[in-house]
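Record 1 of the preview.
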Amino acid sequence: MIWNRKKALPASAAVLCLGLLLAGCGGSGDDKGKERRDSAKNPASSKPHGYIAGAEEAAEQQSRLVLADRGSGTLTLLDLIKGKTEPLGRAHKGAELVTDGRFAYANSASGSEVFDSGAWMVDHGDHLHYYRAEARGLGTVRGKKVEDVYSSKWLTAFTFADGTARLVDHGRMEKGRIKPTATLDDVGPGPAVPFEEDVLVPAAGPGGNTVVEVRDRKGKKKAALGEKCPELRGAAVTRTGVVFGCADGALFVTEKKGEPHAEKIPFGRKVADDERPDSFRSRSLGTTLTARAGDDAVWVLDVAEREWKKIETAPVAAVNSAGEGTPLLVLDRSGTLRGYEISDGKEIARKKILAGSPDAKDASRSVIEVDAARAYINDVAAKKVYEIDYNDDLRKARSFSLDFAPAEMVETGR
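->
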C-alpha cells in the first residue's frame, strides 16, 4: 500500500477495507459449502480462518509501546488503542530494548529478558490479521552481552559480544516457552539473522572478507552465499528478504527457486568509514531502510529499487520512514522534527517536538517508531511520548504523560 503524504486514508475507511478483506478470507461459495460439510463431520474444523487460541482478533492494528526506565529497569506497556498504561515487568537497569513486532527484548550484559507484548500481526500475503492478548514476561536467554536479536516465523537468533549466538524456537515463544534449538560458537562480526526456517550467519571468508553461511535450526551448515560482505555491520529484516550492511553497500538475501540468493546493492561511490550505516531503521518489515550517514546526513536504501540515496539534514538524533509516499523523518539534536521528500531530499515540514532545549544525552535517547499512519517519539526529559501525524505536516496528534523517563521505546503490534 502506498500512502500519500497529503491524503492519508481515513481510519474509518481503512477499518472498512480491512473488514472486507477479512470477510473475503473464507473463500468462494463452494468452498464455504465444503467447510460447512466438513464442520458437521469434524467440529474442530469449524474454527474460523485466522483463529489463534488465547488471542482476540481485531479489525485494526493493535499498536502498543513498550517503554523502559533505564534507571530502575521498570517496563511499562502503553496501549495506543485504549490510551492507557500497565506494568509489564522489570529488566536489568540500563537494558536496551529491541523488538520483532511482537516480543520486546531487554538486552543487557547478562542476557536478553523476553517479554510478550500481547499485540501482533500475521501477514497472509493478500491480507493481514491483527491480534491482541495478555502481555507477559517469558524469561531470559542468557549470554555475554547481547548485541542483536532478529526473528522469523520459525526462529529467533540472539547474537552475543563473544562471537556466539543462540537460536530459539519462535513458535514455542508464541506459546509462552523459551526453547533453544542450537548454540553457535563461531559467529563472525555481525548478527545472525533467521531466514525462513534457517539462519544466516556471518563467518570468516578468504582474503579476510566476511561470507554469510546458511545454517539450519540446529546450527549445521547448509551452504555459503556467493557474494561477499566486507566489514559486515548491522542488518534489517524486510518483507522480501534480509539486508546486511557492508563496506561497499548492502548484501540483500532473498529466496530464489526455493534457495537463499544473495545480491549486492552497491553505494555506487566510495563511502568513508564514519559515514557507513551500522544499523537500520524502518517501518516493521518495510523495504525502505534509513540510517545515519555521519553527523548531519541520512542514508535511504530503497530495497525494491536497489538504490541508495544520501540526504543532507540537520545534526541527526533519530531517523525513520514509513516508506514510499511518506516523508523521511529526522529528529535533530535541538529536538526539532523535520520531514524530507525522499525523492529529492527537499525539506517539506519542520516542528519543535522535544520540550525545552534537550541536552545531547536526552536527545540521543529519543527514537522514532513508525507505522502505517503515525510516528511515536519518546521525550526523556519531559517524561512523555508524542504521537505524530506525519501525513499532516508533522502535527502532534496526542501526548502521553508518564511518571518515569522513557529512555527506551519500541512499538509492537505491527
